[in-house]
Predict the 3D structure of the following.
Amino acid sequence: MRYYGNVIRPPSEARSYILQVTYGCSHNRCTFCGTYLDKPFRVRPVNEVFEDIAMAREEIPDLRRVFLADGDALVLSTQKLVAILDALNANFPKLERVGIYANARDLLRKSEQDLALLRSKGLGIVYIGLESGSDEVLLHVKKGVSATEMVQAVQRAKTAGIASSVIALLGIAGPEGSAEHAQATGKIVSRMDPEYLALLTLMLVPGTELYHQYSEGTFELMDAYAMLHELRLVLQNLEGLTHCVFRTNHASNYLPLAGTLPQDKERLISAIDGALQEGPAVFRPESWRRL
C-alpha cells in the first residue's frame, strides 16, 4: 500500500481499504481545516491507482469495502471514476460498497445519469461536510458553497440511490452565533433527510485561519457545556427525518451518542440533559479528544 501525506477517513470507514485517487483537497480554503495545508491538490495518474489496486488484491483479496481518498475525490471526471470502480470490481469479487468524500458542488456538477452510473458501479455512499446550515457561517468559514446547494447535492445523490452521510461541526460559529448555527443546521439537515448524520466538535488546528483568529482574539472557543447545549439544539430542530442513523462517536466529541432518528430523538436529548447535570465526570477528557 502506498500513501502520500496525511490520510483521513470517516469513522465508519475504519475497516475499509483507503485508496488515494487524489492528493489533498481541490478547495482547501476552509478556515477551520488543517488536514491538507501541506499537501497541494493533485489528481493521481490512473495507472498508479491501478497499481495500488493490484497490490491490495494480493494482501486483502476478500476486501468488501473501499474508501476513495483524499478530500474530495468526486472532483474526478465520471470517466476516471468509472475506470477505477471497474478495476475495483474486477479485482475484488466480494466488494460490497465504495465510499467517497464529496464537495457539494462536485456532486452538482455530475448529471443524474453520471451519478446513476457511478451507483451501478458500486459507489454506495458520499460523505458531505455541511459544517453549518447557516449561510452566514458558511461564508465566514469560506466553505465555498451555500446551505441550499448542500441540500440540492444530497437530493441529487438520493435520486441516484447513493446514501449520504452528512457531517456538521459544533462550535464553528462561536458562542455568539451558536443558537443560529444550531437551529439552521437542524433545519437544513431536515430538508436533506440524509441516511446518516454525524456531528463533530471543533478543535483548533495550528496554521489554520481560524486558529489565527482565535490567537488574535477575534474568535472565541466554546467550552464543553456550551458544545452540548448546541448539540441539544441541533437535535431539537431535526424534524421529518425518514430514517437517519445519528452518531457523535468521533473522537473530537465530548459525549458519544448513537441512535436512529426520528425514533430516538427524545432519548438522545435526555442523554444530553443527563450529561449536563452530571458534568465533566461523564465528558470525554480534553486529552482524549482527537481529530
